[in-house]
Amino acid sequence: xxxxxxxxxxxxxxxxxxxxxxxxxxxxxxxxxxxxxxxxxxxxxxxxxxxxxxxxxxxxxxxxxxxxxxxxxxxxxxxxxxxxxxxxxxxxxxxxxxxxxxxxxxxxxxxxxxxxxxxxxxxxxxxxxxxxxxxxxxxxxxxxxxxxxxxxxxxxxxxxxxxxxxxxxxxxxxxxxxxxxxxxxxxxxxxxxxxxxxxxxxxxxxxxxxxxxxxxxxxxxxxxxxxxxxxxxxxxxxxxxxxxxxxxxxxxxxxxxxxxxxxxxxxxxxxxxxxxxxxxxxxxxxxxxxxxxxxxxxxxxxxxxxxxxxxxxxxxxxxxxxxxxxxxxxxxxxxxxxxxxxxxxxxxxxxxxxxxxxxxxxxxxxxxxxxxxxxxxxxxxxxxxxxxxxxxxxxxxxxxxxxxxxxxxxxxxxxxxxxxxxxxxxxxxxxxxxxxxxxxxxxxxxxxxxxxxxxxxxxxxxxxxxxxxxxxxxxxxxxxxxxxxxxxxxxxxxxxxxxxxxxxxxxxxxxxxxxxxxxxxxxxxxxxxxxxxxxxxxxxxxxxxxxxxxxxxxxxxxxxxxxxxxxxxxxxxxxxxxxxxxxxxxxxxxxxxxxxxxxxxxxxxxxxxxxxxxxxxxxxxxxxxxxxxxxxxxxxxxxxxxxxxxxxxx
Length: 650
What we know:
- By secondary structure, the chain is α/β, with parallel strands linked by helices.
- It is built from 18 helices and 19 strands.
- The chain has an eight-stranded mixed sheet.
- Helix 1 crosses helix 10 (428-447).
- The longest helix has 30 residues, at 511-540.
- The relative contact order is 0.12.
């Protein structure tokens, strides 16, 4: 089934063509200026039209205040020029440290303009920069702060103390792909950001200007400051803030019905890999499929195939709200984010990030089967692995939006968010390999009916049995007790039962037959739970009896309340008042609400489950203990994120 699709697609999909489009997108987006983002969008549409596809650029606001779910879009920002110069002193001449036209990453995105003549000021070293105590005994008023920390996170404290601007040589390290001083001549891509609502500056935020140095430059400048004591810099920034728009690029292959399959991701970032790669590869996938359909080598699919690319996450959420027609008929999607890197230098595996478990779906099983088939075909050796849900533009897999959407991503990688994330770091053969898998996935879903749904349901059941036996094995090898095993198996029953039901989204005719098959498969799932429990108990040396469920007084209270969501999308805490944030953080620490627990809890809040049930599900999904969510939901109700109704009320 999928083997034939891959064989059909392979001769027609070009990694070289994908890389060429990625390079052109990167030529525009690397400037991080909204006018150039719109040029990138126009380029994408022109290529899609050239390939005979339907395409257009839609827009969403970039006004710094429009809110979509918990995301606040940034204000638009354009940059024309910027330059940072070390002024001469006795025995030393003038040195240009960086210039925007030579390296756009040298200017921190969302920097405010300086006066036309620029700013001359002394530079002051601050170790750290984001904490108040980092400034103890240091006068930065009227000066330029040189921070060893991220300028994004140092802005607030520096400006409180009267700093005129910031420079930074900060470059984060990543285990396995970017050790300290791995890239001494590379600049980090930095954005000034508010603490609320996602990246970028919002209305009411106090702007600042800033520059990024390489680590080698930073070391050299520190020596100059140490030697000369007083060092003066000249900074000039020509930029502007304004109410603008964010482009939303869409391309489309019509199907035979009004249903659709989606490829999404984002534009508007500095790197060729993050994330011109996702957009360029999606365009090549659409070109390839459109050609195959046009030549009659693939039939026109039941469902249309659409791509949507915009500003990461907040642009996607805005598009869902502002242009709902593109999403309301979508049965499934796939997100492409940072793909195709040369593994020898990028040092990142290709990862399939699953849907959140509250949106368990056949799509994870299908995409993993296709990736494994690609490996079996042996055309290229690619390091591929699975991982749990990680947030990107796959936020549309929120059950409240309802689009199951696995993610393909290579993260972190050596050149992530730096000026060195350039097209030469990408491998056209690997892009072709991934593109073939994506094309097979989207076409399979686009053309699937009852026969394909039945096959997928059986494959989902195989996944369920593997997961349950893994849990039984873990119970023995990790010294877990019988209650732990029971919880895991009951959770598997729910999770994979939901994934089995998801195949019905593919069925328009013959639904009754598929429903009958699903009933039989769910019976097999139940049998699998019993068998895994029996075997696990036997290996633990205890009787296979269902453990008693004990509830303390807290769990009794938590079981009385059912949260009903009122805000769509991922939880960012945008509505938490500043004066309550410390108390909120203490509550989260006390009740073990961290590492994505808040968002997963909201995803499980379907208006039917009570708080105690949601706690159980989140603990199983994230493999954590001691999660308490009653006060969390009570506080959310006060901020109008949810409504809490008592169990049994309508």
